[in-house]
Amino acid sequence: MSTTTQQKRPPRNSRSSQEFVAKTPTGTAGLDEITKGGIPTGRNTLVCGGAGSAKTLFAMKYLLCGALQYNEPGLCVTFEENPEELAQNLASLGYDIAALVKKKMLLIDHVEIARHEFEETGEYDLSGLFVRMEHAIRSIGAKRVALDTIEVLFSGLPNEAIVRSELRRLFRWLKSQGVTTMITAETGRGTLTRHGLEEYVADCVILLDHRVTEQLSTRRLRVVKYRGSAHGTNEFPFLLDESGLSVVPITSVGLAHQARTERVSSGVEGLDLMTGGKGFFCNSSILISGTAGTGKSSFAAHFASAGCRRGERCLYFAFEESPSQIQRNMQSVGLNLEPWIRKGLLRILSSRPTSTGLEGHLARIHRDVEEFKPSIVVVDPITNLISAGDSTAVKSMLTRLIDYLKMENITALFTNLTVKGMVEETSIGISSLMDTWIVLREMEVFLRDVSGDAPERQRAIHILKSRGMSHSRKMEPFEITDDGIHMLKLRSSSDGRNAKAGTARVRRWAR
Amino acid sequence: MKKKTTGRSQSSKSRAPAKRQAGTKNRKSDHAADVEWELRLYVAGNTPSSIAAFSNLKQICETHMGGRYRIEIIDLLRSPQLAGGDQIIAIPTLVRRLPIPIKKIIGDLSNTERVLIGLDLKPARK
């Protein structure tokens, strides 16, 4: 669980002029932000989702949060998994259930219902369940209750009408017990829950979703309703991995960030010269697009390295290469990243774009940024994320990400692989989100004055736009040599000896 | 709640669970030969359905089990901790402890035929 500023919540039960509903934090990073404090205290909250949508974990996280952070004992009435299984599952996330049970901060009551054991003969009610729960709540002084998954009652007991009326009674009763309850339920076809529980548990409904689009799964969460409180209504991606659950509350942060006037070096002398000798604006977003092999990653690495040299932290998300491959390749252009990694200034995180859906990636980026607190973020390349989602989703998510990074005062550099001939059309139309857009090109050049040589490709850089600064409009040829990136025209003549076949090209481009 | 039970039954309402179990054991050994049925009726207070269940059960036992049965009544309002053991959710619930396998019958036992099926005294109709 990332410890972040967003977890510094207002104290429990605090009532501001806007919020009259007292709230109980759920312990799921991000969710409490969306719900402005948590689920309603003393009421029932329904968490619904399909199979494998992490409902149980969600409910357990809620109880554990109470037990560990707020000194509120929790009762888990589990209808599906037995206590041993639950404890095992949560042990994998680093929770010691047995210890909490021993301290009476947690009680797991397994209610087993097997339909074949029952014969139904006339009138009955579910007082037995009430009695059990009341006894359990009293025995540990529970403040939080989770019912997982109470819908089992419908399949376990033959008379649905009785189950319905008894559940209605149960939910009312729970409210009268002064406990805050989380109830999990399966999503039905066309309805929020298979058995229409949302009719009875109406104070707060959270929908968990696990969608697979083009073989990539993405988990999403949405607060469907929340009586008496404002809440974020969007679908938010959430992560479930070895560090638990976290929701990414990248709401539409909007355009409220403070524009900074400080500039940061791009790490390439020539590129700094092209932007008036100063480089990019702090907390701006920079896009470097170009066809394959034009040196996008080299520019990105130079930028990152320059940041580290200034003592800034830099987070590098690589979607094509492993950290060691990046290090090796950058070594070949005279960039040694190893000292920065060792000093903890540079962190390279590699993953395959197909490892999760787009939202999953962006959620991860969000979480890692919060954890590492960098001042520079590099995403190399962003193109691969695009392949993980459809274009509207990509655009809205990128907008959120860029807004978020700006709010956090982070200078972000994205690289983008383009198809030849479409260099100036970024495939997802993200260029409007970018403050600076740099295009790298490669063109065939016939070097007539070098006898017998085959045509070579010449790289050139071009600033298509850069908001708020005067910049070169020229297309500058450049070379990537074993000691870095050199603008052939902008470089001082003395260090030209490393460039291969330099003079001919300089002359040609100068014409 | 009626305290008396019939046959070689016993009331456990006011006893502690440990004591009650010990009592059961003694009884069992005393009447090992003739006690064939060991039944538990879970109730929660003096509700109409509990009273109905008890009287229906008494009648069924008298008719179909002769004297070879024992009924234990457990009032969950008095001993809520006992609800977990037999996984009691519905009230009233009749649990057939013996002969094994354990059987559960929920409801006020007003449908005699279903009770007999549930207790394996009558084969279930296809």
Task: Provide the fold topology.
The complex is a heterodimer of chains A (511) and B (126).
Chain A: E1 23-24, H1 31-34, E2 39-40, E3 44-49, H2 55-69, E4 74-78, H3 83-91, H4 97-102, E5 106-110, E6 118-120, H5 127-140, E7 144-148, H6 152-156, H7 160-176, E8 180-186, E9 204-213, E10 216-226, E11 235-241, E12 244-247, E13 263-264, H8 269-274, E14 280-281, E15 285-290, H9 296-309, E16 314-318, H10 323-331, H11 338-343, E17 346-350, H12 358-372, E18 376-380, H13 383-386, H14 391-407, E19 411-417, E20 436-445, E21 456-466, E22 475-481, E23 484-487, H15 502-510
Parallel strand pairs in A: 3-8, 3-9, 4-5, 4-7, 7-8, 15-19, 15-20, 16-17, 16-18, 18-19
Antiparallel strand pairs in A: 1-2, 9-10, 10-11, 11-12, 13-14, 20-21, 21-22, 22-23
Helix pairs in contact in A: 12-14
Chain B: E1 10-11, H1 17-30, E2 37-43, H2 48-65, E3 69-75, E4 93-98, E5 103-106, H3 112-118
Parallel strand pairs in B: 1-3, 2-3
Antiparallel strand pairs in B: 2-4, 4-5
